[in-house]
Structure formats: C-alpha cells, structure tokens
C-alpha cells in the first residue's frame, strides 16, 4: 500500500496533496497543465524531494528521510523515454537487471514475453539512439517492466504519440498491471487516456491541491469546479 | 549542406589550418645544416624519455584526482561551483615562471611540505617528483574544467533514470555518466597533456634536471644555436602529438560505434 502526503513549494505554485493506493490498484491524477500533478509524481519517485510530508510504500519509508533512488522499488516513466543512447535496445531493457537475475529461466521468459508483446524483435540489436520516438517509448516501457516493480508511476508517457500506439500501450499496461499485480499512478491531462489507464479512481489536482476525488462516474456526474467541467468537456 | 557550400566551408577550414601551421615553415629557414650529432642526440633522446614517462605519470595523477573532483563540482549548486572554478583558474592564470617560483618556494627544502618530504628522501627540486608535480599543477585546471563541462553535458534525468533502475551512484557514474562524457573527457585530457608536455616556464625553475624536451630545446638553443633546436623540435612534435590525437580517435570511434 502506498501512502503519501506531498508538500512542495515552488516559485509559482504550492503543492499539498495526500493520496493512498492499495496494492494492485490504479489511480489517476487529473488536472490542467501546471496544476502540480507531475510534481506529486516526481516527489513519490524521488526525482524531486518534498519540502515536507511523507511517502510510505508498504513498510518502506521513502520520505523522510529521502531514500536513495536505487533503493526505491518503483518504475517511473515520463514523456521523455530516457533511453541510454550509447547502448543497444536490448542493453537498455536489461539495464536494471543483475547478471544473476538475468540468467534465471523465469527472467529470460519474462524478457521474451515483453519482447514479443511490445514487438521489439526487429529493434533488439539496434542502437537506442537510432530508433524512432514511438519505438523508444515501447523500449522504455519494457525497460521499466523488466524489473517487475511493485509500483509504476507514469507521467504523461503517451504525449505526442499517435492514437493507435497510445491504445496499444494502454492495453499493454493494463494487461501487465493485472499480470504482475503492480500498483499504478498515472498523470495526464487527457481524461480519455487516464480513464482507460486508471478506470478505478481519480484525483483531480488544481492549483497544487486536491479539488475532487472519486470514481470517473462521480467526476463526470458532478465536477467540483468550473475549470474541471471545462477539462472534461469534449473538444 | 549542399556540395558547393561544403567545398566553400572546407576551403575556409583549409585556410585556417594553413594559417595555424604557418609558423612551422620556419623549419625550412636557412639557418645552416641541422645538428644531430652524438653530443646533441644523446641528451635529446634522454629528454624525450623523461618527457613521455613523467608526463604520463602526471596524466595518471591528473585523471585519478581530477575526475572525481570534476564529477563532484558538476553536481554542485551555482555558487559552490563558481567558487571551485575560481580556484581551478588560479594555476591556469598564473604566468608559468611565477608558478615555478611559487612551487619551488612551497615544495623546496625551505617550505614546510618540502622539508617534510625530504625526511622521506623525496626531493622536490630538480627531481622526477618535482617534474611530475609541476606538470600536475599546470595541467590539472585544464583537465578538471574540461571534465566538468563534459559531465554537465550528460542529462541529469538519464542518471536519475539509471538510479531508479537500481544502480548505485558509483555504477551510474561508470555505466552512464562516464561513457556519455568520454568525448569531452578526451578533449580535456588531451589539452592537459599538451599543456603539461610543452610546459617550460614552470619546469625550468622546479626541474631543470631531469630535463624534459622543452628544457632541452632551451639548452640546445643556448649551447649550439638554432641548428640543434630544429631536429629536436621535429622529434617533439612526432612524440607529443600522437597520444592526444589517438585519444580523440578512440573517443570518436566509440561515439559512432
């Protein structure tokens, strides 16, 4: 179970958000650009350090004190694929796997599953610096999932991708969330994407605070603020 | 870039290179027959050995100390970074002769560190340690400043991603930061090498003996005149240039691999 209370003061915004997430569940953080959603996610991941509050994952205290990044059992995906350009696709995917783990039959099978499902076969030996943006997103997703993290954090990972690919990646993520059983928090300002990714629960962040939380039906049924109504309206 | 523009750019670069190499035409000046007799060849080859061996030692020290220092400075906030950079600029800005005098006074037999080292039999004037330490002082700033710039060019987010994939800070440095900054590090190392192996002003004060190539050039000029300088100059270029160039070749190769 993840429990977090993030307090982070920025020049233009003060973020103060609390959230809880049961193991295996998914949670969407919804709101306009610049509302503070990504800051919450970055603080949980450890990319940024909160000014105050706490982050606890099961029995592991992530903050405070700030747990070093390499000891955090989570995966973090952003709109920048963040592939290591000096390595091949396969080296990127196996980057976080120790040699001992990589040698096990179970891990080999898991990597093969990822490879097949994400259609990475033709790219497998290619330099990561030479693949397309859409391919890079698939590789970064495989790299994150290769370690089977118990918590997955997604910060608008599908921005700028075509609808077909977004649909495929969402289906993959939902499939693996059920297969592996990881918890997932996703950030997006497209309700359609977030609803498919995290159908169970959503928190609306506005001006750094929680404006509303509940199910998507509740959100669509009675949006708490005019700006939220505007965000949910079809284009 | 279309073909015409490419040729114009190439022509410009060629003119630039010719201007840069123009002083070397003096090698063909009428100064009389070059001298390379035994009395000149022996000390000259000895100076080549001294320069290559001791500058190599200095580079090992510079890389071993300078790389972690540069990695630290690259992670500092703006104010602290400016402070360290100011300190690194001091030995670079000092006139080499002044640097030699300061090193001799600080590390010589009358300085605190120099007299302490002498107890262990380490002489810090006119000795190999004096030669190496002088080169470390003149080359370190160039290497560290270059290495800081090289580390800066590696995206912080990539390093954080590597850490989130379970790599300890040391392994992130070895597997991500170092490979991605190798071209910049190669440039920094080659500049430090060129600066150190060609150093004359500071070395002539701290380590007249054992004579490296720049000091031997001076000795030849004083004792035999220009005809004894030119062959050693050619030897100097032949032995000093390949190593830094090779470092560039290797870094480029791995970059495009």
Q: Helicity range of the residues of chain A?
A: 25-40%
**Tell me, what is the CATH class of the largest domain in chain A?**
Alpha Beta
How many domains in all of chain A?
A: 2
Helix content of chain B: over 70%
**CATH class term of chain B:** Mainly Alpha
Radius of gyration of chain B: 22 Å
| Oligomeric state of this protein | heterodimer
Q: What is the arithmetic mean of pLDDT of chain B?
A: 92
What would your notes on this structure say?
The complex is a heterodimer of chains A (about 240) and B (about 260). Chain A contains nine helices and ten strands. With about 240 residues, chain A is an alpha/beta fold. Chain A has two domains: about 1-75 and about 150-235, Rossmann fold (3-Layer(aba) Sandwich); about 80-150, no CATH class. In chain A, the strands form two sheets. In chain A, strands 6-7-8-3-9-10 form a six-stranded mixed beta sheet, sandwiched between helices. Chain A starts with a strand and ends with a helix. In chain A, about 40% of the residues are buried. Chain B starts with a helix and ends with a helix. Chain B is flat. The mean pLDDT of chain B is about 90. Chain B contains 13 helices and no strands. Chain B has helices spanning about 5-20, 40-75, 80-95, 95-105, 110-120, 130-150, 155-165, 170-180, 180-195, 200-205, 215-225, 225-240, 240-255. Chain B is an all-alpha fold and about 260 residues long. At the A-B interface, strand 6 of A face helix 7 and helix 8 of B.
Summed up, what is this model?
The complex is a heterodimer of chains A (235) and B (257). Chain A is 35% helix and 25% strand. Chain A is α/β, with parallel strands linked by helices and 235 residues long.
List the helices and strands and how they pair.
The complex is a heterodimer of chains A (235) and B (257).
Chain A: E1 2-9, E2 14-21, E3 26-30, H1 37-45, E4 52-57, E5 60-63, E6 74-77, H2 89-93, H3 99-102, H4 105-117, H5 133-145, E7 151-155, H6 163-180, E8 183-188, H7 191-197, E9 201-206, E10 209-214, H8 216-221, H9 226-232
Chain B: H1 3-21, H2 38-75, H3 78-93, H4 96-107, H5 112-119, H6 128-152, H7 156-164, H8 169-180, H9 182-197, H10 201-206, H11 213-224, H12 226-240, H13 242-256
Helix pairs in contact in B: 2-6, 2-9, 2-11, 2-12, 3-6, 6-9, 7-8, 9-13, 11-12
